[in-house]
Every structure is written in C-alpha cells, then in structure tokens.
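Good morning,

Both structures are done.
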Amino acid sequence: MYCTNCGSKVEEDQKFCNTCGHSFESWDELSHPALQKSSSSKRYSPVWIYLIFITTLGLMVWGFYSAINGSNGLEQIGENQLQEIKKNQITKAYYEFSSTKFKEKTSLSAFRKFVDENPSLSEFQSVNFEETQKENNYGVAYGELHILDDVSIPIKYEFIKEDGEWRVLHLELDAPQIVTKSEDPVTNEVISAVKAQLRFIKEGNIKKAYEEYSSADFKDSADLELFNKFVQHYPYFSNYENIDLLTTDHEEGMAKVTAVLYADGSALPLEYTLKNEGGSWKVWSMQILKSPLSQSESTIHDKILHEPIQEFLESIRKGDLKKAYDLTSSKFQKTTTLKSFENFVSRFPIFRDSQETFIQNSLEKNVGQVRVELEDAKFSSTMDYTLIKEQNGWKILGIEILENAVPKPVKEQKIEKFNGEFLNQVVSNQLDNIKAKDLFSAYDEYSSSDFKKATPFENFARFIDQHKVFSENSSIEFKDLNFDNNIASLTSILTAKDGDKAVVEYDLVKEEGAWKILGVKIISHEKVIQEEDKDNVSFQPMQFEKLELGTKLTSEGNVSNPSKHIQTDHSDIFATLYINRAVAGAELQIILEHINSGSVLPPVQSILDKDGDVRLNLKFNAPKDGWPQGEYIIRVHSLPGNEDQLFPFTVIPERD
C-alpha cells in the first residue's frame, strides 16, 4: 500500500503516513455518529483555530518543499542545467550546477568542448527524466533528450550532495535511439519498462534488472543465477548500441513487445511478454526469436534481401541518389537527411563504380542482415547492410563499412605531360603567405576541409615553426606530379635561407572548383644538395616498421612477451613503435580504436626529437570497466599528412 499524498510505502493497518502525516481514514468513518462530538462539546476559540490554520499551512509548505527537493529534485537540477546550456550560458551551467569533484576532473574549457562535440545538449526539443534514485549522498537520474519527433538520446546524470545541496557529479550521453511513441499511455508504460530493464542489464546491474522488473511468475520459473546466465550468454544485452521496438500489443493485463538489439554490426530480435502487477509492468517472459533456416527458406530470403540492395547500388551507379535514398527505411531518413546521405556516398567512391558480391545473410522476423563485398579495378570494400520490413517492402535501415578501400596491387601511373602549373601556384601562394607571417591565411585559404578536420590551426602553426624550409623559405623546385583517385601528389624541394633543404610531398584535392592542399609530408631533410645532383635526388620516406604490444615491461622498458593477441581485462596496454628514417620535429598522432563497437580513445600526440631510427614507447590506460573483447587497431598518423598506417590486434579474456 502507498500513501496517496506523497507516494511513500505504508502498512495496510496504518492510520497516518509516517512521512507526510496524511490520514487514511475515510470521511464516511469520521462522520459516523459514534465518532462525532456531542453538540454540547466545547467550541474552539478563534485563537486555537488560528494556530491550527498556521500549523496546517506549515505542514503543506514543508510537504511541497520535500516534494520539490525529493525524488523530483534531481530531475529539476538536470533540467535546469540543460536549459542553461541550451541558452548558451555554458559558464553558468558549469559553475552553478557542478560538484567540486566534477570541477576537479573537468575544466570549464573541457566542459565547453564536451558541449560543442554533443550538439544535442543545446539543440534538444525537450527533456524527460524517466527514473531517479537516491542513496545517502549519491543520486542518479535517467532520461532522454528529444531531438526529433522520433529520435532521442539517452542521458544519465549522477549527483552528489555537497553542503546539503545536490550537485552534478557526472554527465553521460548514449547513442541516438529511434523512439516508439504511442497515443496509448499503456503502450508507453510497457515500452518504458522494457527499456529500463535493458538499461540496468547493460550497466551490469543484473540484480536490479531482475528484482525490480521481473514478475512473480518469472521469478518462480527462473532464479537470479539462471537469469544472469541467460543474459551473459547473449553479449547483445551488455554491448548493444541501439534498440528498436518494432511492435507492441496489450490486452487484459498482459502485453507483448518485439525488440531488436543492435551490436557489433548485427541484430538480436527478442520478444517480451509483460504482466501488470500492482500497477507496474513486469517481465513475464523473454524469448530470443532465432530459428535455423531450411535450404528452400534460405533461397527465398536471399532473393528478398538481395534485391533491395542491388536496386540501391544500381541507383547510385546511375547517379540517381534520390532514388537510392528512397530505398532506405523511414527510420533511416529520420536520422539522415538526403544531403547527409549524398555526402556519405561521396566519401566512398567505390559505391559508384563497382560490382557487388553477396557473402552471407541472415533473417530474423522483420530484420535482415546482408554482408556485401564491393570491388572495382583498384579496391575492394566489405560492408554490412541491415534491412527492415515496412508496409511497402524491405528497406535499408543501416550501412556499416567494415573494411574500406583495400587496395589491389596496381602500378601508380605517372602523368608525364600534364601541365601542373596551377597546382604549383597553389603551393607557391601558400608559401608566400607563410613567408609573410600570415599563417592563418595560409591555413584557411589553401587547406582542404579534410586537412582542417585532421589538423587544427595550432598544430599547423607549430609544424611550420619547427621547419624553417617553410618559415624561412628562399625557394621551391617542383619535381614530380602524379594522380591517383582524383588526388594529385606533387613532390618538391624546399630550400631555407641557410641552405637547408627538404623533399616535401603535397597532396591536393579539388573542392568546389578549386584545388586545395589535402596533406603535407616531409619525405627527408638534407643539409646540402649539390646542384648537379638535383635531378637524381632520391629520398626514402619515414617508415613505421613494427608495433609491439603487451601488458608488462622489462627492466629495460621494452614490451615483455609482445603479441597481437592480448589477454587482459583491466591491465594497461604498453606499445613500442619502431620508426625508420624518422624526421626530427615530425608530429605523430596515435589512435586506438575498438573495431566492433567503433569506440575510439582520445589520440596520443608525440613530436619526434631526432632523425634516424627511433623507438617510441606508448601506454594506453585501461577503461574503468576494462577492455572490451574483440578486434582493435592502432592507427598511426603523421601530422600534417593524410596517410595512416594500421596495426591490428585482438583482446581476449584472461585465463583463470
């Protein structure tokens, strides 16, 4: 039984609520003759009536204050901070709502960067907190930022009490979700129960997911240990990136929900049955919707899944991107505009001139998955298509590039007679701006958009300052020009005022009718190059020979027992990068990426301090929850530049 005034739990035989003092006796009982005062009873004086009124008013104010600062207080704090962010009052949002611990870990500038990198914090239409919890001085609130009518971003606030006031301890955003909305409040309650249970499972709080969201019948048939084994058997529950609630139905206290969990480029469909117990929806059963396909069924499924993809790719080859876009699902179009889709296709030229080969596919109820290899004369790419059945047929719900533009052995074709004077002029104009100390114009006017994304202005300015062949340039001599996939590579020899020389390779790309610099790479430095030998200059580029990985170091600081298969859960990962023909002052950017989830650690930046063969030691700190199992790559990027070298490895669980 619960108090009708404040919601606190009470026993059935209680007459008053221990929390707010509300009476549970009905007016009918209070009007019974046996309980009434006689007419000759003493009447209350005006003074007593006044005191009773003041006391009652005080209790009402206290109850109102408790309600505001109780379970709803956390919601209000989170919503107030978000509203300040939406008004671009970032400083106020930071100082007025952040805890001391939050400010110790996150500076104002880092908070601004976080807001800039997550535009949903300032562009949301509304915010809704579904659940709050408090224990001692710690609180948590789960909610959603509604971005579009059918798209929301899950948000999690953690709070800590400081000097009697709740303050923000942690703020976390999840991946965008497709929202299943209904005019029926019961349907929305059922969906909220499923999402809450899945959220606690993902966070590792299996006990709470079981105890608070399982029906009595469910608990009778499956104890906590069995439920835990079931959840652990399907990694989708802990690794899902998105949830799609396809159908809902309810009747006479029972409801069904068909959900799809997306993780690692694949999908797990399951069916929930829920039961209404005491006004709350509880899980009555969970069923994985998987069954082996017969050969005849498999042939039919090949046809119904392959045809939409074939039509999609053929439309792109013909240049009809609008038709290709129309072959995507309504949910795809809710989150991806036609312009964004066109930009996506333009980033992968292999879509436009290739032949597809279907590798494998699977079909579970209304969701299908197909792995496709696209191949042209030079490259091949592997990608996964997710399809969903809509009223007008099968539509593409998502495309994941698994392996992009793997080159085939092909001889680069040198263009002997091409007149590249206009390309030379772009490089010369940038150098003129550099020599005139106008670095911003050199960066802004002559760099491509991809160059600017990979290389902030501060890095560009530092690179120029470290190499006097640019900052103190006296001349430039253009050597070779090559073209590959609409990218021009221009090799030149730059000479500084003191005679130092460097062979520099420029990559250029055409943007909106104008050629822009895509990458700048110093191939090698030379103090003196004799005039008669200029035409025979041949330098070897800097080479990343190998990368050794492990979880322990020797006494000399080297990786102990290096391997490409790392057995670890929570240990730090050490790496040693061996570089041949290093160039002093070259800046490297090292990025660690988990391929299965697409998550990326913040890049590690290092500036080489000497020429020749160099060994660079690196350390990657283990995440709070440990390293996810699966495939990883370490991407080594030379700044400025656009060529990456990849070093793959895998993380496997530690042996007992």
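Second structure follows.
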Amino acid sequence: MIRSASIQQIIPSTVLILPLLLLAGCGGGESPEEPAGAAPTAARIQEGYAGSEVCAGCHAQEFEAWSVSRHRAIFRPGGTPAYQGAAPPPYKSDTLVVVPAAATPPPDAAAADGPRPALRVEKGGATGTFPVDAVMGGKRLESYATRLEDGAWLLLPLSYQVEQRAFRPYTDGTCGVEALGLGTPMAWQAYDRVWNHRCIDCHVTAGDIGFDTASGTYRTSWVDPGAGCEACHGPGEAHVEAARAGRGGEGILGLAELESPGQVEVCGSCHALSFPFESRWGGNRPYRPGDRFQAAFLPLLRPQESEPFTLLTHADRTPRSGVMEYQGLTQSLCFLRGGATCSTCHDPHGGAAAHALRAPAGSADLCAGCHQDVVAAGEKHSHHAAGKPGGACVDCHMPPTVEALGTRLASHAIDVPVPASQVDYGIPDACTLCHGDRGAKWAATQFKRLWGDPEGLRRRRLARAFNGPDAAALRALLADTGEADLLRADAAAALARLEGLAAAPQLLAALADGSSLLLQRYAADLLGGLGARADLGLTERAEHFGRLQEAGVPDALRRAADTGPAALRLAAASALARLGTSDGLARLESLRADPELDNGYRLHQALGKYYLLGQKLAEAAEAYERVLRITPNHLSVIEDLGFVYFTTQRFQEARDLWMRGLTLNPANEDLRLKVHLAEDQLRSRGQLPPEAGG
C-alpha cells in the first residue's frame, strides 16, 4: 500500500519514473500507527478551546440539534460509508477502475469488528485495497480518506453521490477548491489530495496540521471532528469557567452580537472560495470567529478573465461553481439592503429539517418577513400556479446554477431572473432552466411580456458592465459604496484591464476607501500592476513612471504601507516593489519588524521574489528557505528556490528540491526538465553515475 505522503523524503533515483507519494508496494489493509500525541504547534492553535461535549450541560437543545447536523458529519473518523450494504457497481473508465471491497482488520481489532469498508483500486495510479478510515459529508456527496503510516489522511479516488447512488471519480472535484488554480492532480494519490493540509480548515474545529519536518510525519489533531460549537462561537474555555462561576453571558461570541456582515463572515470562513492570508503550517493561529474576515481571507469572484477564475462565476459574477454561498449572499439585495444573514433562513445548529431551514423548503414563509406584499400577491406576481414549478420564491430567485458536490446548488445571489442575459452572455436563468425546451429567446420574450423591460434591472446592468465592457458603468459600480465589496473589486480589476493607467484615479479612491479592506487590498495589487511594460525602452519607462508619480500612485501606496492592517500594508509595500520605486524593497524589509507578518510566510515570499528580481541571490535563498520552514509544500517557492540554488551552482540542493516539488505535482513537466538539468550538472562533475546507455 501507499505508506507515506511525506514531502521531506527525497527520491534517490533519477526521475524517469516518479513514484507518487513515495509508494512502498501496494495492497494490504494494515492499520496505520497513530502518531504519539499532538504536535507542539497544537497548543497555539487550540489554546482556549473546550470541545463541544462540554456545551451540552447548559445548551442541551442546541447540542441535540447540532449532534444530528451536517456540520457535525463533515468529518467522521471511523464512519461507515453510505453505500455500505448496497454498494453501486464498480466505477470503471479508461483511466480508473475502483471496486468497493473490504480491508483486513488490524491485528488488535475486536473479533466482532469484522472487515472494514475499503476501496480496491485496480487501475489508475497506485493500486491495492485501501481502507475507508474516515468519511466526509453525506448529504449530497460523500468522500473518503485512508490513513497512511506517516499520519497523512489521503483522499480516496471515488466519492459517492448519495441521491443518485453512484460513484464519481476524484477528477470531478468536490467542494470547488480545485478551481483555485491547483488543477486536477495527475493521479489520485497526488500530494495535493492529502486531507491534513487541504481540507482541515473547515472539516474539523481548531485543527492543527502538526507536520514534523524532522521525521516527515503528521501529528494532526483537532478539538472536534466536524464543525463544532467553537467553530462558530470561538474558543469556549473562558465561557465555561465564567458560567461555572455564575457569569454565563461572558467569554463567548454570540453571533447575534455581530452586525449582519460579521455573522455572514463567520459562515464565509468555510462557505466561500477564498485565499487565506496565512497558512496553518507551523502552528500559525488561523481565523477565529470575531476576527476581521477581510484581513484573514481574500474571497474571490472573477478578478481575471482567464481560467481558473472564469470557472468560478457566470459572466454577471453570480457564483458558478464551488461552495460559494458567501459570494452569492453578500451580493444579494437581501443582504445589502435587508440585512439578511445565513441564519435568517437556516438554523445554524442544524437539526433534522431539510437544509436546516427554519421553514419548509419551497414555502414563502422565509421571504414573507420582508416581502409581505409580494407574497400576498401570489400568482399575480409569479404568474405561476402555487404548488407548481415557478410558484415558489426560490424557484425563480434561487435557481440551481452553482455546480458543486456532484450536483447543482441553489444560487444564494437571490435576484431577479434575466433571460435576456442568457441570450446575450450565456448567463443561466431560472426561466430558461425550467422552460429549456423553448429556449432563452422565448423566455426573454415572455419575461418582457409578463414583468416588463429588463434593461433597468440591477442584474442586467451588472451583466452589461462586465461584458461590454462598459468603462462608465464599471466606474459607477466601483464608486457605489452601497454595492457588494466583491462586485466593486471585480469592477476595479475590469477597469484596470480596460483603461490601464487611466484607471488610476478610481483605483486610488478605492485604496482610500476605509469601509472595505477587501477593496483596498485589491486596489493596492491593481495599482502595483500599472507599471511600465517590460518591452518599453528606458525613456518610455521613465515617462510612464513620471505619469504614475503625477497621478499620486507611489505616495498613496506609501501611506497604505505605513498604516492599516497587516494584509493591506503588505499589499501596498509589494505594489511599490513591483512598480520599482527606490524605496519599495526597503519598505518590504521594514515589515519584518511586525511579528504578525514576520511569523507568516507571505512577507518572506514577497521578499524572495523581489530579491530574486534584483539578483540578490543569497537574500532570496534565505527568504525562500524561511517560507518553506513555515509552509513546506509551497510549490512555486520550491521552484524559485531551486532556481536560486541552481544559479549559485548548488546543484544537489536544486535537484533535491525540484524532486520534492515533483512529489507534490507529478504532472509538472517544467519541474521534470529542471531535475534533468540539475542531474546533467551533477554528472558532469562526477557526482552522479552516467545515464544507462549514455
């Protein structure tokens, strides 16, 4: 079987055939040895947590609802697969064959335990029988992990689509994190499918990766499997102590205490596709409920008109794929004007109701609180019979246009359907989805007949602004403080692509907009991208930089680099370095005085990049090595540090590092070529034997 997912081990032979995840034979079903105790890093991440069980004494009703909720079920070590007892047929394709099976129980298992559920891989990557050691999900899609001897939990190559009772291959994706640019792994046992670092943030409470760089093993730990009470309320130890002293209201975050955006952001820490500002590697304290969300994460819509970003949203920026309820809800008028939160419709503690809704699915009760007149109008508003398709609010305003978890999910953008945008821009709408046999043009005609001209509708205006593209409309959207932060950020990106330096006044206004840290971070990055093209001559570059100075770009970035949250200061200093200002690199270096930035990897990654561009190779190596001590699987840093080693004739270190990168991404042909180049240099110096036949 696969025994290890360690990235610290280096394959000693040439990379003509690269074993993925360092295979040591296949087959078997032995139980992996549990790493001894939690890692030292766990103390920093799990400080102050008490665990959900302790909540039951005072909050029995909430605990009971949570105990049968999907939040609790999203990671179940030792859980039983939903297909057990009635497994569907084996999955077979040209590249992958997997059969439901049973694994031999470990020697110390009780006799009554019997064989464990397993998946037998007969074709496609590593073959053998792999026990199902953990189950994830189960409402729509259920995924499985097997535990390796080094403590890694490796995702198995099939998921199970519960409603269709069918297996799906790993290449179909799951919650949508695959869309963030990492691509589909070449084989199911690729390192990118190790649960410990890919999924831990959301599938357990206060999870610590616990990777030991010396031994190459994981001592991963958590407070609760699944999303426990403290995943939403924050660490509860102080609250427990206060409650026992008769001060029950102290020491815990009650979500009702937060304004509407804050409540949604707690959910958005998992129900959004976003880039975390820092890594859990090395024990960095991750986001906790009540922290500033826009400092901890950079949620995405469609900041670039290229893949993978075009896969994330439809052309009007409504979510298209992945778990993006945050991106949907926060651009809805229900949120922006009505203050709706996730708990307006859903019971956050879960319970047995479908989708944890506070009212039956499809009823108008959830909407009636704000839309009494519309609900009372009934068929006069909907033009569809009650109880029939199109008769419920969600049928038209929350159509299933988001692909994730093996199915189509309801859009949480909650807006008016616009068939005309399906005709013009290919944006799906509820009318055309329901009346697909008649087509979008028919639906557009009927919409105009029943509800009037759609051209003034907000969603139609957004589609025109982004797809014209319409510079005036983009400027208006960017300046509209009543619009969604993410829509304004995408408008800024679109305007910068369209107008270049001419967009500087609008981007500078966005940088100064203290109401949205997300918008400021985007604006700083976009301003850094306004520098002169590399193909321009020195005179033209100097003239371009003069125009940047006249527009006030460097000075504005300097002000941002000196004040504000760490994420903004780093973005602004990086932008100055990217523009090539005389003080850009020095400002980046000065940020090392901030422990929050110095203890994270992003500052050192930026320093390494600009040291390398400035040919300060020793400094670049030191910065990149610091990154890999903090987050040892950072592939682009592995590539760049290997280049530094190669350039400074440290060929063995370059080769070993690039080989390590190939264990992370076996399909990277560029890395494979670099390994060969390093090996050629080693052979020419007699440090490797000649190639066979050569």
